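Hi U.,

Before I forget, here's the chain from the pilot set. I'm dumping it here mostly so it's searchable later in email.
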Amino acid sequence: MVTPFRGREGPAGRKYDLPTAGIGPRADPRPRHDRHAGHMDRTDVGAPTARTTAAPGRVEALDALRGLALCGILLVNMPAIAELPLDAGPWRGTIPQWLELTAHQRFFPLFSFLFGLGTALFLDGAARRTARPRLVLLRRLLALGVLGAAHHLLQPGEALLPYAIVGTVVLLPATWLPRPVIALGGAVATGLALAFTSGGLLLVPGLFLLGFAAARYGLHHAIAAPNRAVWAAVLAGAVVVAVPLLSIQVDTIEYSGFDHASSTAGLVMAVGYASALVLLTASPVGPWVTSVLAPLGRLALTNYLTATVLVVLLTTVPAFSGPDGYRALLPLAAAILTLQVVLSRRWLRRFRYGPVGWLWRSISWWSPARMARADDGHPDVHSSRRAVDRAP
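Structure:
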């Protein structure tokens, strides 16, 4: 079932990039009697910082990273779902070839890494709520697998089911390991995937482990309050490494997705994209950037699934088919993302989770999650928790 390129292969050899689901939280500091079983979809890092304006303790930069990845995944999956033809010839600067350089294999590494990081934060939170946190995590992964199996009917190249399988087989056992072992295992698995395969799904186990270890080492704190010099150095390093790799990929564009250069370039550019966005969130334009991307990321699972439905509906439009379908790709993608940003922002004014995210959390905890926001003006039996949530 594992393919040696950017994602999974759908009908007629179509290639899909890898989407992912929401990122879970760390622990709730409130006493056990004042907690709610469903309050688990926050990317928490403790005390609020200047970058956590969406909700107390929430890191908007992590939400924005997920939102950015959703944008890239959409650009990759739209041609695959619509079965637009590939351009397998030498470099001519066509839209499909530019997508190979800028989008394919660039965003699923980021998603995979964030999934591992979010799993660690989720498990930390679960450990303070229940004596059997791994059972909650197992239910979470099984529920994701069921969603993925259903989603497979619309998008054969979807990755929710593979994420659930790899999470159960790799991440769950790793929760018993010390963080240096997890980090080493992730680095070795990722290196082997790059050295001996063309990446794709084979990168996922290593990236899951690296993300999990990163949470244990506190990377989410560094994203919440970034050191600009450090992140600028990471970005500069990614650019230096990516330039020669991209040059090789252009020269061998007809093999893109099947060779080592494209998979390695994709991983390096994922690091570059992520570090650039972290720097943007710490800049004067940061509030504007997060206001656009963070709502997408907060409702990642719902937005990913609804995007698939919208794209499937758009395949009935004659302009979005055949070789000329690429001309409609960017306008249609922009329209879908704009709609999702607007609806996500409006939804989050009243609710804490997306509809699918709420279902996922409720199944994970085997108890209905509280949907309404605590600060939306509605009566709430948990209203007394607000002062606690806002405390450092």
